[in-house]
Amino acid sequence: MVALSPDLCPPQRIKGDRSQRARRLGLALAALLAVMTVISLGWGASGTSLTQAILDLLAGRELAVQDRVVLMDIRLPRVLMGIFVGASLAVSGAVMQGLFRNPLADPGIVGISSGASLGAILAIVLASALPGWLTGLFGWYLVPVGAFAGGWATTITLYRIATRRGRTSVATMLLAGIALGAIIGAVSGLVILRADDRELRDVTFWSLGSLAGANWPKLLVAAPIMALAMIHAPWLARGLNALALGEAAAAHVGIRVQKVKNRAILTVAAATGAAVAVSGGIGFVGIVVPHLLRLASGPDHRWLLVNSALLGAVTLLIADMISRTVIAPAELPIGIVTAIMGGPFFLWILLRNRGVLDL
Amino acid sequence: MSLIASDISVSLGRKQVLHGVSVSAQAGEFTAIVGPNGSGKTTLMRSLTGELACRGRITLNGRDIARMPPEELARHRGVLPQAAELSFPFTVAEVVRIGIEGQAGRTEALIPQALAAVGLPGFSGRLYQELSGGEQQRVQLARVLAQVWQPVDKETGPRWLMLDEPVSSLDIAHQLTVMRLAADYARAGGGVIAVMHDLNLTALFAQRLVLMCAGRVLAQGRPEEVLSDDTLSCAYGCRLRVNATPESGIWVLPHLAA
Questions:
Q1: Which molecular function term from Gene Ontology is one that the record holds (chain B) (predicted)?
Q2: Could you tell me the end-to-end alpha-carbon distance of chain B, in angstroms, rounded to an integer?
Q3: Residue B147 domain boundaries
Q4: What's the pLDDT tens digit per position in A111-164?
Q5: Domain of B131: which CATH number?
Q6: Which residue in A174, A196, A208, B79 has the most C-beta neighbors within 10 A?
Q7: How many domains does chain B contain in total?
Q8: What does DSSP assign to residue A140?
Q9: Per-residue pLDDT tens for A30-40?
């Protein structure tokens, strides 16, 4: 019998504690993100090589006007947008999966992304029917604002449906999300039927996702929302870890379960709403990134959320580089790139681990 | 210091599951809740842990649990649920760690100690989902134990282990390991309250029994008071015979004679 004495053992490394591995992975990902950011800034369809320009900029030297415009007004906002959107999508996925205790949960699955899409489609198609002063007031903010409003409205509706007497049922929310997603899809279809050719092209391009529209004003609106959501996410880590044991057991170890759920949903709505608003429908990042990280360093949310943000950003930068150059000077929508990269990769992981991994 | 439930009633859906139940358990003792399937044992346990809202009043060390926030309750009592679920591939060490996360003064050095206490030394690096049912149950117990490691808190008094069928999927040797662990916890000044099925194992370790039947307490007290032929036969609806010898204590057998 082992005596229940106070623990007096010296600190030691415990087998099965993967936090050191996760911490190292995080540092490596942060370094990779820094490198990818620089490469990404120098990468593109513009004829001039910008690598020298970046080195000049880092050294504090004056840039040629053309290099300056391409670098500061086109590439930099786009790269920053890629970092924020990639991080937001991956963190939203990880939080949603922790909340639903299901590695396949994703804002895309519970209809939050569809709601945001509907908002954007409405904005594109109905823009011509709106009074001039309104479209003038929002300018090209109309689509992002529509997407953001759609994402929020869906999340709140879903939450109201799934909450009874202050308790949110995760199962109801998942099922209601699937139903709501179908209804929203149908309404989007109806709206698209009304669209003319130009609007149709806009809708299609937007729904495939792209960072092409990134500019400083959009970034300044969306980035603070995404940044706030991501800064807040690590505070959810302890609650999400405990929730893996089920809601009752999480409450027994001292977690205020309803508070964690409320905050997780708010975080996801803000991050996904802002990301979809500025970049359209970019799939798979939210599922594949957290899944890979769980395989590499375990599901502990203290590291998973931070590392998801880093790997999500790296992934989107790579996808954007491919989308910018593969059919240059035209551009491949980034949603197609992430789906082509992510889909087969995800299937490969599933097949490789068939029977070993309990999803 | 004690755990006292006074006149508690619980309805699940339209069905009333507990009818004005009053029970008490003392720190320093192993209290077992026994009774047939569907008699309300688990519902009573879920009320005592604060998980289920109920009519009536439950106090832990003199404080109303309905007024204690979750983190405060977590300092005073650890709960082993009947069915332990776990999503995502956590290692054993990571599962036990969830028990100490957020608890002041606990370090990760406790993880191997808690695992050794439940008879799983060297298991910390294994994946939880690859363990057998009995091993998983003991990992969960290690997690609960790590949460309320010292049986007595210098400031707030005794801590409590609340166990819902802690030995249901264990072999006889590990049943003894777990029961001894619980008994030692009580001997060191902590409180233990457990839902049990095996009357013989219960009689070996418990100082106090609560016998439930149809949502009511049929009898409670010392094992020799509660375990009688008539009371048990009435509770379980079959003929049971209670035997006792000075060497082996009390044991219960079904009476199969025509």
A1: ATP binding
A2: 48
A3: 2-254
A4: 888 888 888 888 888 777 777 776 666 666 677 778 878 888 888 888 788 877
A5: 3.40.50.300
A6: B79
A7: 1
A8: G
A9: 999 999 998 88
